[in-house]
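Chapter summary example.
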Amino acid sequence: MRASSLCGCALFAAGLWWAGAARAQVFSPGDLSKAHASLEGMRGCSKCHVEGSGHSDERCLECHDEINKRLEAGSGYHSSVKAQQCAECHLEHRGRNKSIIEWKPSRDEFNHRLTEWPLTGPHKEAKCKDCHEPRRIEDAYVKNLVREVGRETYLGVSTRCAACHFDEHRAQLGRSCDKCHTAEKFKDAPGFDHNKQKEGGFPLVGKHKDVKCKDCHETLTDTKAPPAFPKPRATTYLKVKNIEHASCVACHEDFHRGALGKNCARCHTPKDWKSINEKGIDASFHDKFGFPLRGEHTSVACRSCHGPFQGAPVKYKGVKYSRCTDCHFDAHFGQMPLDEGSPRCEKCHSVNGFLPVLLDVKLHETTHFPLEGSHRTVACKQCHKADQRLLQKTSPKDRAEAARRGRELRVSQARIRMPDVVTVVDGKPTQADCDICHDDPHLGQFQKAAEPPDARAAKKGCWDCHTTKAFAETTFKHDNSRFPLTGKHTEASCASCHVPPVPKGDEVLATPFRLLPYACSSCHADTHVGQFTTAQNRPHDCSDCHSTKAFKPGTFDHDKQTAFPLEGKHEEAKCERCHPTIAYKDTKIARYRPLPAACTTCHDDQHNGAYDRFVPPKPAEAAKPAMTPAAAGPETHCGECHQAT
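The structure predicted for these 645 residues follows.
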């Protein structure tokens, strides 16, 4: 009996278990994923679901503390989507081998900016698994989680460069890679500036800027095996710290073999080893030889003066230098006056450079062409232009000597002497011919009749109106012309009457000044639109009504110049009462001619036409009615009864 009771209890318990398992299978929509497989069954439902309420985010976070911590800190991807339900992205009950992450639209198209770590440069091309792998996880909590079999996560990866990349500098430059490198241009190291390095800095100037890194930075080899992860690019690297550069001989060979000491900068500069640094040399070094180096001479290579030259060894003693021509060729080909057989170059030039010349305005006054007015501001080359014919004066001897000494034959093709510009009579210059240097902007308008048709302005014609002060400021008096300026014409700009023409293509045109029509209509539009055109179809003389003093009021006299003298009340009427504004084509004008003279043109007929066909009685017929009907004829004139007053 007792045994049967125990057996019954066992069967009952087994039934209950079987019923619970069956119930779980009935209510579950499908198998859980591998990650949640331990939650299968009725007892596991409450780990994620709340009875009567469905899924609960709070219960998810009870297990997934690594997510909860980031939500509380407001960091990471999940903080950007905390308004969403977990189940919107993480789907369950889809089978044991199904992923619970629902990538939208896909994992490869995931917006990485939401993680607070936007992908830039080559990072955009990397695969997810390249960065999100267990070996790169630095977060201790997350690292412990991934030890679970089958556990995957995208959390815990550090944004430090060294977390993914091997430090190719072997800790020589610290851990802040982004001080020099960017994701877009790693090799260029745009943040690195050799001139601004504080510790052991060595600004790169002159030729040093062109030197490759490996020429100064020694290539070292790892003394011990590097770590397997992250893997280095190579087992060799450049030494970038503690580079000896206190003296030049640390990198460069001493060609003087110590004879001149170790201070190379005393004579040489990084700009060019062959360029001598005058400031670094003792002031008495070259001065004691009677030829102090100044100006451009300080940058001249020693061999340019001392050799060796072709067929001649280096020479330091006995070098001639009293005259510029001892070293330099006559750049002006004998155009300058000679002094003891050679030109005195120092009158116009200095050792600071061939240009600018020292021939200033004051010194130019000693020539046959003193500079006055605007000529004082003109650049030398504007007048002294290059003359290719001067090159023909270079002798073969000079060319051969320049080649032998390895020196550039520097010459000036500037034309200095210009006898065709300034005529000298008895040693004194006459007035210069403007047309030698200046084009005639008037294209012969002021050419004198005696000159040929193709000649430019007369030799003294320019001076009649212009001075050297300024071309636009003329001395011309318009009153001496056939059109004296009066009234408002004195205020008009020259260009308003002398309108510059618009050229077509390469056409050269001149502003018209002579033989211009001077009728009013040639400059002014006819505001009356032909109302005063004569019978010969010519414009009426505007001066009959207007003056140059002002267009309004005019000199017009209505009584003398029209067939309608103004009398009585008509004298008080405004012009526009009788001369209305009318539309004419695209404008509005005041109508002056023709106008009807009938009273009814301007005045209303107060009699409503009662006297249109009546004539007044004659004096002898005064006893008759005041008006009698007319048999026929024109309308009755108002003046028969009324006066203008």
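To summarize the output: The radius of gyration is 54 Å.
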